[in-house]
Write a structure and sequence with these properties.
339 residues; mainly beta; Jelly Rolls; Immunoglobulin-like; 3 domains; 9-stranded antiparallel β-sheet; 1 helix; 22 strands
Length: 339
């Protein structure tokens, strides 16, 4: 699924467009590779269900989506009477939960998902599919504030080994990106996914094409792409990175760079006098916007042109044209090959 932000600028055709109780080298709660889950880039808490999740005994970070070997995390009770049977995450904003993904290394334990909405209503989801298949609920769960994955089996021989767990739904936060072309390049802005991540900026010249990373380690939520060619459409995707692992990517946005076009604006006055100006298309558009507004009865009576040629000894030269003295005008656009 891709989103597209489009802005239109007159005459310029601008398109815009969880560390575990035992220390593991990798933790296992991540999202389905290449998909955008609600838990992507989030840090999950792990602790004991009988403490009402008040104090997490550890935090589980994202991993590299490796679903083999010992890259799992354990949920359950060990033979030293230590309780780490619950993993939970609390959203900053309520979410609609449509589906889930759960992949375990074994079939031990009894895993249950608990979803709590903003009113404190708790939904228990049992008989979970643990085979790494995206499973859709028959009815979406609305306004969910907190999610938990619990091993309800207290036997020390029933510890669940979980590779990955994630939830999917709408709205998916922080996947939006906006691209706007300007004189200095294409300005990208996006929402922050979560604290503690950096971003990669990917770019291609074909929608859905093969992306090239043009920037990495970006700590903010904006980037100005100056390595662009005029009159070219670029497509962008922002990827959130935690611990050198891609954990969430945005929708796609596009923008077309501005053409370095100019125009000869010829204004014919009511007395037959012609006034000629060599302008950028942005300047032409500004004049036309003034004229249209004044024609609708809004704005100043006169419009000024700052003349940068033949200034002679003067600090500045300014031409003023009066609205009701304009008979007609024409715009002769040409390509500026000097830039």
């Amino acid at each position: 699924m891709k989103g597209l932000f489009i802005n239109f600028t007159k005459s310029l055709l601008v398109l815009s467009f969880v560390v575990s109780f035992f220390v593991f080298e990798k933790s296992a709660f991540a999202a389905v590779p290449t998909d955008n889950g609600l838990l992507n880039c989030g840090i999950l808490n792990r602790g004991a269900n009988n403490t009402d999740n008040s104090v997490p005994i550890s935090k589980l970070d994202m991993n590299d989506n490796v679903e083999t070997g010992s890259s799992y995390n354990e949920i359950g009770h060990d033979d030293k009477n230590r309780d780490f049977d619950t993993v939970w995450y609390q959203f900053t904003e309520p979410k609609q939960i449509d589906s889930y993904y759960l992949k375990t290394q074994n079939t031990l334990g009894t895993l249950v998902m608990k979803l709590t909405d903003v009113n404190g209503v708790v939904y228990d989801v049992t008989s979970l599919n643990r085979n790494g298949v995206l499973t859709t609920f028959s009815t979406p769960y609305q306004n969910i504030k907190k999610v938990e994955l619990i091993n309800t089996n207290t036997s020390t021989s029933s510890i669940a080994h979980v590779f990955e767990w994630d939830l999917f739904g709408t709205p998916v936060a922080s996947q939006s990106i906006q691209a706007v072309a300007g004189a200095d390049g294409i300005q990208l802005t996006w929402e922050n996914v979560t604290d503690g991540v950096t971003y990669k900026v990917n770019r291609t010249t074909a929608s859905g094409g093969t992306y090239t990373t043009i920037a990495s380690g970006v700590s903010g939520t904006s980037y100005l792409d100056t390595s662009v060619v005029k009159n070219t459409t670029y497509f962008y995707q922002i990827v959130a990175v935690r611990n050198n692992v891609d954990c969430s990517c945005s929708f796609e946005a596009s923008a077309q760079t501005l053409q370095n076009n100019r125009a000869i604006l010829v204004i014919t006055m009511t007395n037959g006098l012609e006034k000629e100006y060599d302008l950028t298309m942005a300047e032409v558009n500004a004049f036309m916007d003034w004229y249209d507004a004044k024609d609708a009865g809004v704005g100043k009576e006169k419009y000024s042109f700052n003349k940068t040629w033949n200034k002679g000894p003067f600090l500045s030269r300014t031409d003023y044209v009066i609205f009701d003295k304009i008979l007609f005008f024409e715009v002769n656009e040409y390509e500026d090959t000097t830039n």
